[in-house]
Design brief:
By secondary structure, this protein is mainly alpha-helical. The protein folds into 2 domains: 160 residues, no CATH class; 206 residues, no CATH class. It has 18 helices and no strands. The longest helix has 37 residues. The two termini are 16 Å apart.
Length: 474
């Protein structure tokens, strides 16, 4: 079920009214959320509910077994079972064809004909997200940072919580799971902030991302016949498409969670105002970045130890992050590019230089800050070309054609509607960068602006072709 669908428009208020006004007991509320979450997920394909339930049951059992034993060898075995099960399931559905196809290609390249064939495997929506969420549960229990729950309904509700089930944020059990065991009282201010987040998330998705998607699809599909300027704008449009698409989803998810009394972690923090690539990754897809930091990067040694260990860890974390996004060499290349961009900062020990937001004490950035933000945006956008392209060859040729100044022909007609939207969006984000989200308005006319945004969403929802959230494929 899509957040920007008519079905969800009916689904959300129905669940909300039942949750707060009919089923007021904690246990019944959790059961309602669990059933609603399974309906939400099953709306796409009910057959994959079995995978979600199996993952839930398996890690719930592992958690209980970890609590029962203090024998370290047995605890390691139980954790290994959880890792093998979850990563095995993820690997089969997401990467089986990738490995088979590359295995065949490798043998064919040396003249050996292979007859193995790939399978028609459908990737379950959200499997990369809920497997990581349940893994954090078992790992934290193993590390004795979390006590396992004995309440299966609470745990199942935590794994399948519909606002963030299919595209995050990837919640930690230490944050979200305890919220299912506490009595929840309707908080008007929390609900209002949730509605504002949903509204702004829909603006990002329906107005900005979907408008950019139309142009991005046209440009990338026929990049060989486009002018250099058109290709440049196509890359820029995709940078905003993926940001507004994914952060828009996260805003709607977090806002929906607040309607039910839950506080989900922040997933984006104005990443395109970053002054270097390290700051960008502290602000982009925060739940995934911190997951890899805590469960992969730090256990490997992080930025401690000899230089070669530091370099190894940086490349591992970015390459794994790229591969997490999809079974294609383009994602691995994208991860490698980000590692190369991050490495100089680590070696100079300047990767922690920009912890606070930019220009917090002024309305506008300094020239230095502006150049830093533009540089970071440019290199990030170049890397996004690999993320969006069908192959590494296409990505490289796209970039070569983009810098073909002999064909740098202006294409004003195509961009006359999209460019003002991006300028408008950037202005709102810039002057909201000190706030948790972008439309925290402190004016007596704020209701007018909220109604205005609602009408803009309705207009673009009917005028622009609707596209699926990009991160559903991951």
């Amino acid at each position: 079920m899509l957040f920007n669908s008519f079905q969800f428009l009916l689904f959300l208020p129905t669940v909300f009214l039942l949750y707060w006004f009919v089923f007021k007991k904690l246990t019944i509320q959790n059961v309602l959320l669990l059933l609603a979450s399974y309906v939400f997920y099953g709306w796409w394909d009910w057959r994959f509910l079995s995978l979600l339930f199996l993952s839930t049951l398996f890690d719930y059992t592992i958690g209980l077994q970890l609590k029962k034993t203090s024998v370290q060898q047995k605890r390691k075995l139980l954790l290994m079972c959880s890792l093998v099960f979850n990563l095995g399931m993820l690997g089969f559905f997401k990467y089986y064809n990738f490995f088979i196809d590359n295995w065949i290609s490798a043998w064919n390249s040396i003249g050996v004909t292979m007859h193995a064939s790939s399978l028609q495997i459908i990737l379950p929506v959200g499997i990369s997200f809920y497997t990581f969420q349940t893994l954090s549960y078992t790992i934290d229990i193993y590390r004795k940072k979390l006590e396992p729950t004995t309440n299966f309904i609470q745990f199942a509700s935590f794994v399948s919580f519909f606002p963030q089930l299919v595209a995050g944020p990837i919640e930690r059990a230490t944050n979200l799971l305890p919220q299912f065991s506490k009595k929840r009282i309707f908080n008007y201010d929390l609900a209002v902030s949730g509605m504002k987040l949903i509204l702004w998330g829909l603006v990002k998705k329906v107005v900005i991302a979907d408008s950019c998607a139309v142009l991005v699809n046209q440009i990338f599909a026929n990049y060989e016949h486009q002018s250099g300027l058109t290709l440049l704008m196509g890359a820029v449009y995709f940078a905003f498409q993926i940001y507004c698409d994914f952060s828009g989803y996260s805003d709607i998810a977090i806002g929906t969670g607040r309607l039910f009394g839950f506080k989900l972690m922040r997933n984006f923090n104005y990443p395109y105002f970053s002054r270097d690539i390290a700051e960008f990754w502290r602000r982009w897809h925060i739940s995934l970045s911190t997951w890899f930091r805590d469960y992969v990067y730090i256990p490997l040694g992080g930025s401690r130890g000899p230089l070669k260990i530091k370099i190894r860890n940086v490349f591992i974390i970015f390459l794994v992050s790229g591969f997490w996004h999809g079974a294609n060499w383009t994602f691995i290349a994208w991860g490698g590019i980000n590692a190369l961009l991050f490495l100089p900062l680590l070696l100079r020990k300047s990767h922690r230089n920009h912890i606070d937001g930019v220009a917090l004490n002024s309305h506008f950035p300094t020239i230095t800050e502006l150049l830093q933000m533009l540089t970071t945006f440019c290199v990030t956008t170049l890397a996004w070309i690999f993320f969006r392209s069908a192959s590494i060859t296409d990505a490289i040729q796209y970039i070569i054609n983009m810098f073909d100044f002999n064909h740098f022909i202006p294409d004003v007609i195509r961009h006359k509607k999209a460019l003002p939207l991006l300028v408008f969006f950037l202005i709102i984000e810039w002057f909201s960068r000190k706030q948790e989200y972008a439309i925290v308005l402190d004016t007596k006319f704020r209701r007018f602006f909220y109604v205005f945004f609602a009408f803009v969403i309705l207009y673009y929802a009917s005028a622009v072709e609707k596209s699926t959230f990009i991160y559903f494929q991951f």
